[in-house]
Here is the input.
Amino acid sequence: MSTWKYSVILGFLGKLNDRFATYGEQREIAGKFELASKIEGIQGLELVYPFDFADVAVTKTLLKQHNLACSTVNVNIKSEAKFHLGALTSKDAGIRKEAVSYLQQAMDLSADLGTNMITCCPLSDGYDYAFEIDYPKAWKWFIDGVGTAASYRADVRVSMEYKQSEPRHKVIIPNSGTTLAACLQVGLPNVGVTMDMGHALYTGEGTAQAAGLLAQAGKLFLVHVNDNYRNWDWDMIPGSVNTWDLVECMYYLGEIGYRGWLTSDVAPFRLDSVKTCSATYRSVVWAEKVVEKVGREKIREIIAQGDPVDALDALQAAVLG
Here is the structure.
């Protein structure tokens, strides 16, 4: 079995919105922590900057009180109105500078909390229509911004999360290959990638392949776990739709020696949040147990022979037996 650690994004334990409705309850940060402490398997929380750090002392006290680590500091450079037309790629140099400052301030917080890693999904950086942005210029601003932030502290890793779309119709880093290219172009060892399983599925990737690609380059820093129907980022319980993708991904995370956090990026919406996040943990554990029941050596042999029918037979037998 792998030695990954399980965490949950704190924001999913409060009020949630989609385009049409509001779900859950508005909770103060202490109430969210109280719910988090009831989640099965939880060891840490991914905290969002700036929203979960209105009072840093309170946040630190709550982590200690509930015996939870800060897994990562998630930097939000999309929600505030000033970032709606771009953050790291804004045409306004002052806004770009402010986005970099957000990353740097979050780096300081992550070091103070002992996680030494931030993650950021730059969802306001992209475009909606043709002829809206200067693509080469926007890409250079993005690379320069990430590089400036990462150069601020070599002891803190900067993990960029890719996504195909939302809220911008086209996000500047839509898939694993583009994001890896960005990391290599920045050229700093502390810049890497957050692979969100749902984002990989939505963009048409295989999660196992994406994980392997990033790991081979030494750039797989963080994994978010969730699922969808490959047509939108529904943030569902992992394995609830793409079951074998989850099992295969867990196999490869073990093969590549991933020892980081698996963070729930599942939106409960119409479901009980504690029950949903607990089911997320159990689903990932189940997938790994299937791998171990078949046997890693057996799976290696099947892959070497290149016969997916044997793989399906072995997996189905493991589930039934």
Observations:
- The mean pLDDT is 97.
- Residues 273-294 form the longest helix (22 residues).
- The domain at 5-293 is CATH 3.20.20.150 (TIM Barrel).
